[in-house]
Amino acid sequence: MYIIAGLGNPGKKYEGTRHNIGWQVVDELADKHGIRIMESRFRGLVGKGAIGGEKVLLLKPLTYMNLSGESIAEAVRFYKIDAATQLIVISDDISLDVGQLRMRKKGSAGGHNGLKNIIAHLGSEEFMRIKIGVGDKPAGGDLVDYVLGSFNRQEKETLAGTKKNAVLAIETIISDGIDKAMNLYNTRKEPKKKGDDNHEGTALTT
Q1: CB 59 within 8 A of CB 98
Q2: Which of 73, 148, 160, 169 has the greatest count of CB atoms below 10 A from its CB?
Q3: How many Å apart are CA 37 and CA 44, to the nearest integer?
Q4: Catalytic annotation on 19?
Q5: pTM of the predicted model, to two decimals?
C-alpha cells in the first residue's frame, strides 16, 4: 500500500495558489484513476483506490501547510507502512523554476515548512518526495504573499504538462520504483547558449 499526500491549504482563497500545487497533482491523479477524495479522516480528506494493482490512499491534509505532518504521520501510523518506501509527498518548491519536477528518496526540508513538519512528526527524512517548481519570489517581494498567490496564464500552461508528468512519475514509482521514475521524469534547465543572455531555458528530461 502507498500513501500519496499532496500538500496545500484548505479553503476557497487558497485554491490554485502556488502552495497548493501538491493538492492539484493529487486531484489530477484521483481523476485519472477514478478515486473520489471525499472521506474526512486523519485530519484530512482521503480517497482509497488502486493504481497499477497496488492499494493507495490519497491524502490532502486539512491541517494547513505548516502542520502537514500531523495528518500524514497519523495515516502512516494507522496503516503501519514503511514511510521510506510507501509514502510519497508532493509539494511546491520555490528553488525550482516554474514547471521543473524534482524527485528525491529522502532529504532535508530545504526551508519548506510543510516538509519540515512531516520530518518532525515522522522522526525521519526518509520518505519519497516530488517537488514541483513554482519559481522564486521577485526581488524585494514577500515570500508568504508569493506562495499564497496565484499562477499567471503562462505558468498555468507550463504546469499543466508538469502535473501530468508528476502523475506519470507516481505511477512509475508504484510499478517500477523511484529510481526509474527519477531517470524518466526529473527535469533540469537547458544550459544557456553562448552569447544568448536572454535564453531562459526549457525543462529537459534527464
Answers
A1: no
A2: 169
A3: 10
A4: yes
A5: 0.89
